[in-house]
Amino acid sequence: MLNPTLEVIERRRSTRVYDPMPLAAEEREAILHAALRAPTAGGMVLYTILEVEDQALKDRLAVTCDDQPFIAKAPWVLVFIADFQKWLDLFEASGCFEIDDIAPRRSPGPGDLLLACSDALIAAQTAVIAAESLGIGSCYIGDVLENGEIHAELLGLPAYTLPIAMVCFGRPLKEQEPIEHFGGHLVHRDRYRRLEAMELAEVAADLERLHAPHGLPPGATSYPQAVYRRKFTPAYMDEMNRSVAWWLERWQGR
Ligand SMILES: Cc1cc2nc3c(=O)[nH]c(=O)nc-3n(C[C@H](O)[C@H](O)[C@H](O)COP(=O)(O)O)c2cc1C
Asked: Is the CB of 141 under 6 A from ligand 1?
């Protein structure tokens, strides 16, 4: 079944090569407006969007986000910040911490953080789909979670904030064929169950068919082996995990 919305979702692909023309102001406004229409936990809009306009800052982020030069060439870059700081500031400014008969003062905890990340990511994906509907491609940059100390300083992020995703936007320079995403054994009923050996073999074979149609990289005898080498064990994931531990410590006021 397809309708215009499903068609937009169907043709979306990550875009990494951009027409250098800046996006029109109305396009940027429409995308931001759509992002703000996304559902948010408790209606609290627990995120802030940073528009990265300064070319020098983009150039730096292209290096600090695991050396991805296309970031510097993206016409529009947004960072989606999980943000509880603004609510702490609102509570403070509204005298909440002086009221005795409501819950005592506490700091935002891991639950607040996950809700804020959910809000920020749902808004980001809404922006991605809105952009796609206007013919504007996008690419997430998860590596904005790396180099926490540097990114907190570069983006001026206070304690109860965390850059959960960066998204580059721009018109694709060339037409891209949509790729099929692997969906085997994705939906379970009522209760999670770990896949059995036969099912794991099916998953591995399907992934290989979709993502390595021209053969596996040298040294790998199955697609999971290629992923293990290229996505699970490389140095950037060590940095990602070190840095996220730093963000979490910071959020907990340590
Ligand atoms: C959380 C997240 C982080 C990502 N980070 C990067 C990134 O740092 N660099 C990049 O080129 N693509 C990044 N991507 C894009 C994925 O590689 C891409 O979505 C995936 O390969 C599927 O391809 P498609 O988006 O074209 O369907 C990221 C996607 C997500 C959802």
From this structure: yes
Kindly state if the Cβ of 60 falls inside 6 Å of ligand 1.
Answer: no
> Residue 14: its pLDDT value, please?
96
Enclosing H/E stretch for 92:
helix 85-93
The number of residues in the chain equals 254
Nearest CA to ligand 1 atom 27: 13
Torsional sign, CA 66, 68, 69, 70: negative
DSSP 30: H
Distance 238 CA to ligand 1 centre (A): 18
Full-model pTM: 0.95
Cβ(38)–Cβ(92) below 8 Å: no
| pLDDT value, residue 189 | 93
What CA–CA distances, in Å, run from 65 to 29, 57, 117, 150?
A: 26, 12, 19, 10
Cβ atoms within 10 A of the Cβ of 84, count? 23
pLDDT in tens, 80-126: 999 999 999 999 999 998 876 666 678 899 999 999 999 999 999 99
Positive or negative torsion for Cα 226, 228, 231, 234: negative
Ligand 1 mutation pick, 66, 71, 141, max ligand atoms within 8 A of CB: 141
- Ligand 1 pocket check for 11: Cβ under 6 Å: no
* Nearest by Cα to 167 from 11, 44, 30, 35: 35
